[in-house]
Amino acid sequence: MNLSTxxxxxxxxxxxxxxPNSVVPVATAVPAFIGYTPQAMYEGKSxxxxxxxxxxxxxxxxxxxxxxxxxxxxxxxxxNPEYYFVKQKSKPEKGDYMLIDGDFYSIVPDPNxxxxxxxxxxxxxxxxxxxxxxxxxxxxxxxxxxxxxxxxQIVNPNVQLNDLMNGLxxxxxxxxxxxxxxxxxxxxxxxxxxTLMQEMLLQCTEMQTAVSIFDIIGGRDPxxxxxxxxxxxxxxxxxxxxxxxxxxxxxxxxxxxxxxxxIDFTNLFGGDLKQLEPLLNPxxxxxxxxxxxxxxIESGExxxxxxxxxxxNASKTYSQMVKHVLSDANILPPSGGMAGVITTxxxxxxxxxxxxxxxxxxxxxxxxxxSESQQADLNIDAVSGKSINAIxxxxxxGILVWGARTLDGNSLDWKxxxxxRTMTFLEQSCKLAAHAYVFEPNDKNTWEGVxxxxxxxxxxxxxxxxxxxxxxxxxxxxxxxxxxxxxxxxILNGFMKVAxxxxxxxxxxxxxxxxxxxxxxxx
Length: 523
Known about the structure:
The chain is α/β, with parallel strands linked by helices. It is about 35% helix and about 15% strand. The strands form 5 sheets. The protein has an 8-stranded mixed beta sheet with strand order 4-8-1-9-10-11-15-16, with helices on both faces.
C-alpha cells in the first residue's frame, strides 16, 4: 500500500506477501503432429490449418475423423489404403510377395492412398500419450488406381511440402508443444523431406521450446546390405543447423494398430472385384462358393462386413491376402510411438531419464534386425556426428528402443536427448516465472527475489534426481547482482541478468565391467 495515497481518516489493511514467487514447471511432453487427417471439422467449424490441442484419442476422433454411422452399421473407416497383387515372372527380390496357384505376386500399394498420421496418433495414445497438438494440413487425396513399382520407396504425390511447411509455421505461435512430429514426411521425395527437416530444426532453434523427432526414408523396407545408403542420405539431408534439437529413430516398426476388421476386399485392387475374383476363382480351378459370394456382394445381398466374413471362410487364399496386406499396412514410422514413450517416461520418471531400454507398446516386428556392430555406425559417426537411435530386437527381451541421442552426437554438451530436453524444461520454466519481475525495480531486493525463486525450483529438481551433486550447492548455482552478472550500464539500459549453472544428469550409455583374477586366499 502506498501511504501517500491515503487521504481520509480510518483504518487501513495492508496485506504483505509472506512467500516469494515460485517457478511452475512447464509441461515436457506435448507433441505437435503435422499431417493429413480424414477430416477437420467440428460443429460446422473447420480445423484445417488450425493448431488444435487435444487430451485424448476421443477428442481427436471427434474433430479429425469421420463420424460413425448409427448401429448396427460398422464404424466408419478412417484410413483406407489400397493394395494390388501384381503378377511377377519370378520370385520378387524386394518387397512382400505371395504365391498364388504357382505364380508369384508382389504386394504393392497405391502410393496415393498411404498416410501415417492417423495410425501414429493411435500409436501415441497406446504408449501413454496425453496432451497433444494436431495441425491438420488437409484431408486425404484421390487414389491413382494404379500400383507403384515393386521395390520402390513410397512417394505419395498428395503429400505436399508446402502443406507441411505451412502447418509447421503455424506452431510458431504455440509455446506449449515440446516435440514436432511429421510422420508423413517420409512419403515425400528425398529432397522435399530434406527441406522440411532442415526447416523443423531451424524453427526449433528459434523457438527453443521443442525438439524434432525424425523418421528415415528407407526404414520401411530396408535392404539388408545397402540400408547404409539410406542412413547416409538422411545424414546428408539434415544440414548443420540446430542438430541438438533433433533426434532420429530407425527402422520403421511393425505394429498391431490396424486389425482384421480394418482391411476388406474394398482395400484390394481399388475395390474392383473383377480384378480380385480371378485370383480366388480361377478358370482352371473354379471355386463356386467364391463365385456365389461375389455375385451376392455385387447385387447388394451381402454387406461389406458380411461379404468379407464369407470370403475369409470360403477361400484360404483370400485369408492369406488379407493377412499380408494387414501386415504391410501396419508398418509405421516410429516417431508417433516414441512420442508416447517419451510422455510415459517423463510422467513416471522425469524428463531427465532417457527414453530408452524400453519397448514401444504395439510393436511386434521389425523390417530389419540390427546387430550390435551394425548399430555402432548408426550411434556414432566420426564424420558428421549425426547419431541415429536404433530400435532393436533382443532375445528374451523383445523389441527395445536402444538409443537416446540427438543428431549432435559430437557435442559433449548436447549429444544426449534427455540432457537437451532437461535444459529446455529448466530454461522455459524459469523464463516464464521471471515474467513476474518484468518492470520491477532493478535493485537488490528484486535480484534476491529472483535468485530465491530459481534456487528453490532447482533444489526441488535436484531432490527429484534431475541434477547431480552430493548437495544442492554442487548441483547448481544462481547469481544475479551488480558486479557479478551486471554492470552499471546494464542497469541503466534496463537489463537484469541472471546466471544459472546446472549439473544435468547424463545417461550411463556405456557400462564397463572390469574383471581380474586374484590368488586364492587361505580360509
